[in-house]
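ARCHIVE CARD
CATEGORY: sequence design from structure
SOURCE FIELD: tokenized fold
FIELD CONTENT:
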């Protein structure tokens, strides 16, 4: 009886490990994605991203620099408005201030195909090259609709 129980437990652990391995290999749930960015020497860890239309992305931004930065996601109009603006802190979806030595998150819903931009608009940072592009491809796996707190108004 003890041997049978031990075999059943071992089999259960093995099957459970297989399910975990399968879930990890399959990637995140459809329509949801986590994008990790690191800021080092006033540069993002990547300058090009690709996401599918309908993706709800959580950006996790780690700032290893001794100075503050920001992440602004949006089209050229959004980038121009932020560049001209005077806001010192950002709290809208896809817009976040990233203090020195911190890790912050923001969420953005990619609702249509095309090319968006991301970058930092603190004085001189965009010109220095602290920006990149996000290619939003045609219809991919989607969440039904973005949560209310994640909707972005067009400026």
């Amino acid at each position: 009886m003890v041997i049978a129980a031990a075999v059943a437990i071992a089999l259960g652990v093995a099957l459970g490990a297989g399910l975990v391995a399968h879930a990890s290999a399959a990637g995140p749930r459809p329509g949801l994605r986590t994008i990790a960015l690191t800021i080092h020497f006033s540069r993002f860890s990547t300058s090009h991203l690709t996401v599918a239309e309908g993706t709800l992305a959580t950006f996790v931004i780690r700032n290893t620099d001794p100075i503050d930065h920001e992440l602004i996601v949006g089209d050229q109009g959004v980038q121009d408005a932020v560049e001209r603006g005077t806001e010192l802190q950002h709290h809208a979806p896809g817009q976040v201030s990233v203090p020195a030595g911190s890790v912050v998150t923001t969420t953005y819903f990619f609702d249509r195909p095309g090319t968006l931009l991301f970058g930092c608009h603190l004085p001189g940072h965009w010109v220095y090259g602290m920006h990149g592009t996000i290619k939003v491809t045609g219809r991919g796996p989607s969440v039904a609709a973005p949560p209310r707190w994640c909707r972005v108004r067009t400026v």
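CARD ANNOTATION: The chain has a mean pLDDT of 79. Strands lie at 32-39, 48-53, 55-63, 69-74, 95-98, 103-110, 114-119, 131-139.
SHELF: design records, drawer C
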